[in-house]
Amino acid sequence: MTFLSLDSIAVPDIHPQAPLVTRKARLPDIEAIHELIGYWAARGQMLVRSRSLLAETIRDFHLVLAEPHGGKPGGLAGVCGLHLLAADLAEVRGLAIHPHMQGRGLGKQLVAACEREARDLGLPALFAWTYQQAFFERCGFHRIDKANLHPRVWSECQRCAFFENCNEIAMLRELG
Ligand SMILES: CC(C)(COP(=O)(O)OP(=O)(O)OC[C@H]1O[C@@H](n2cnc3c(N)ncnc32)[C@H](O)[C@@H]1OP(=O)(O)O)[C@@H](O)C(=O)NCCC(=O)NCCS
């Protein structure tokens, strides 16, 4: 049996001081999104997302891209999706920041972009599953009891491989 070392699951190098641009995702971005989410999924921080699921939901995603800088190529610095679950709820999902770009406000900026889109759509609330409770609290979310989840969240959960032993935290942000 062959074991993959974590070091072999890497993301392309980008310069931490590279100029950044933000935009919505396009289909050619699927590989880079898959790679960055796969990097953190391999480290137990989030759930893996298949290329086919990313293709189906590509219009959900906001990106921050690093431009080529200091001899290093450009690449994906961060990604976050806003996925509509029902007329009264959307989920912030697939949030991942490049390991060289953490702690610089990009995660908060991407969640804020999803929040703006949710407000424009007229949504009253945002939902997230996460292991990063403190980060989401900084983004205005609060923890909720799993017993009180929106029924549409449960129907998504039943398709998840970790349904029987989920230890993610459920968080909500009312948009008032
Ligand atoms: C968690 C993650 C999205 C945070 O993004 P980031 O760009 O590093 O965070 P930011 O710089 O935007 O931080 C925003 C705020 O949250 C705080 N914060 C960030 N990560 C935190 C953590 N792990 N624990 C506590 N606070 C945290 C910051 O201190 C900052 O606080 P401030 O508002 O007082 O300045 C990012 O580190 C990441 O991709 N982690 C791995 C994948 C993951 O866990 N994804 C989430 C799946 S739901």
Question: In words, what does this structure look like?
Answer:
The protein is of the alpha+beta class and 176 residues long. The chain has a single domain, classed as 3-Layer(aba) Sandwich (Aminopeptidase), CATH 3.40.630.30. It is 27% helix and 26% strand. It is built from 5 helices and 7 strands, in the order βααβββαβαβαβ. Strands 1-2-3-4-5-7-6 form a 7-stranded mixed sheet. A hairpin with a 2-residue loop joins strand 3 and strand 4. The structure holds coenzyme A (COA). Coenzyme A (COA) binds next to strand 4, helix 3 and helix 4.
Question: Are there runs of 5+ residues with pLDDT below 50, and where?
Answer: none
Order the strands across the largest sheet as they lie in space: 1-2-3-4-5-7-6
Q: How many whole angstroms does the radius of gyration measure? A: 16 Å
Number of domains: 1
For the record, what CATH class applies?
A: Alpha Beta
Q: Please tell me the CATH architecture by its name.
A: 3-Layer(aba) Sandwich
Which H/E pattern describes the elements? Answer: EHHEEEHEHEHE
Give the name of the CATH superfamily.
Gcn5-related N-acetyltransferase (GNAT)
Q: Give the mean pLDDT.
A: 94
Name the hetero compounds present: coenzyme A
Quote the beta fraction: 25-35%
Query: What is the terminal separation in angstroms?
Result: 53 Å
Coarse shape: globular
Q: What characterizes the major β-sheet?
A: 7 strands, mixed
Structural class: alpha+beta
Q: Give the count of helical stretches.
A: 5
Helix content: 25-40%
CATH topology description: Aminopeptidase
- Counting DSSP E segments of at least 2 residues, the number of strands comes to 7
